[in-house]
């Protein structure tokens, strides 16, 4: 497990260019309200069917998995690790991400990013 504070800000802004792979497993409405820039979005329930999309992420780094508070990402991390991926849960999820002032964007024009 890793906290958002342990993830370098510069790399987070430039995902996945700088090698940090961040997978957001929240639902569509949560994602639209606010998410980390350039994170890959695959809702937890769709992960088994869409796991091939992880090939877009850098393969020399673990996949950092995030949700709202850490529960769904813990399940996704366990499943990914059992399936042969190197995955790490982001402790505290997007709630901690936002409290720590990490960069966030929204899909809702004119809105301020928020964690639902």
UniProtKB/TrEMBL annotation:
Lineage: Bacteria, Bacillati, Actinomycetota, Actinomycetes, Pseudonocardiales
SUPFAM superfamilies recorded: Rhodanese/Cell cycle control phosphatase (SSF52821)
Pfam families in alphabetical order: Rhodanese
Entry superkingdom: Bacteria
Listed name of the protein: Rhodanese-like domain-containing protein
UniProt xrefs under InterPro entries: GlpE_sulfurtransferase, Rhodanese-like_dom, Rhodanese-like_dom_sf
Domain Rhodanese: start-end pairs: 16-106
Annotated region described as Disordered, given as residue ranges: 96-116
UniProt xrefs under PANTHER family: FAD-DEPENDENT OXIDOREDUCTASE, SULFURTRANSFERASE YTWF-RELATED
């Amino acid at each position: 497990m890793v906290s958002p504070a342990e993830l370098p800000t510069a790399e987070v802004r430039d995902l996945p260019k700088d090698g940090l792979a961040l997978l957001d497993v929240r639902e569509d409405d949560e994602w639209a309200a606010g998410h980390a820039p350039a994170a890959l979005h695959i809702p937890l329930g769709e992960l088994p069917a869409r796991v091939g999309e992880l090939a877009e992420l850098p393969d020399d780094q673990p996949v950092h998995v995030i949700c709202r508070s850490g529960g769904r990402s813990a399940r996704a991390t366990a499943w990914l690790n059992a399936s042969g991926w190197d995955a790490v849960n982001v402790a505290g999820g997007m709630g901690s991400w936002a409290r720590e002032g990490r960069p966030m964007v929204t899909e809702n024009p004119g809105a301020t990013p928020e964690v639902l």
